[in-house]
## 1
Amino acid sequence: MCLVGLGVKIMNIMKKLGLGLGASLAALAVAAPAQAIVNLPVPVNATVSYNGLQWAWASPLGDASTIDLSYQGTLGWRLPTAAELALAPTANQFIYAGANANLDGTPDAVGANWQFTNGLQGFAALAVPYFNNSFSHGDFCNGPGAGCGLNEYPWNSGGVAEFIVVRNLQNGVPEPAVWALLILGFGAIGGAMRRRQITTVSFA
């Protein structure tokens, strides 16, 4: 078993036993080396748009010190205010068709993977590898409103609570796929306009 997997398993066991953040972090410090953060724009399907803001599930721990905004901050991502957090989506709202991470724990292309899902099915938006040097997973049932009937903690409240970040929708940087669609759209419009031009031929 790889060291990262062993460290994650130890942390989850400690969560289930009710052990605190300190014990979990101590276990991970021994068992799991740091991972590389993904310095790319967060895909839209790894986020949730809600109440006029874009939200990203960024850490399996509720401590802001686990969040790295050195790159994502340049794209508008930030910590939510208390007022924004009071209007945040529930964990269950991160589940939707087309979201990036399978709730069965299968990692997506950048390694985002769900754990502690209590058998939930489908896909849910998860952006941890874009904001975190230490983790690539989220513990779904720890999110508020997960509906698992297990531990649900308020967002960003410390300990084993899950952490979310936010950005204003108007500040969002279009994804490469969006730019590609825009370019194709303009190309199609230009092509249609050229086809509609009528060529007239005059005979002397």
## 2
Amino acid sequence: MIAVFAALLIMLCALISCERKDKIPPTSSNDEVGEFFTEVSDSDSLGEFLAQFGLKAAQKPLSEDEVTIPSDFGEQYISYNKLQKKAGFDLSRFKGVTVNRVTLRGDNQRITLLIYKGHIIGGHLSTGEFGDSYKPLTG
């Protein structure tokens, strides 16, 4: 009986964890921009998302691929997530999840966005040069 209860409890926790990742809020906020929407479904809505941050990008991506957010954040990912939090994102709730990474050409910079189930969950700005440090989407 105890084993059955424990198994049910484990399954319930797993369901809650999966549901938490699936229910992505349609908006987020940061000090610089205020509240902004995160849902994107096509290149037009992607452009509208970027406009919230005062950014523009070419419609055709430079690259698109999939990346898996580590289950355990090392020093590098802890630092990267601090950058995400400045822009109003938090990757810690997406540990172990595979997401789409899209890199776009902006004005004198590259814009990299992390997309999960039609929502922007993170991103950064860079020059695209080797060794360049990342900046939050808020600039």
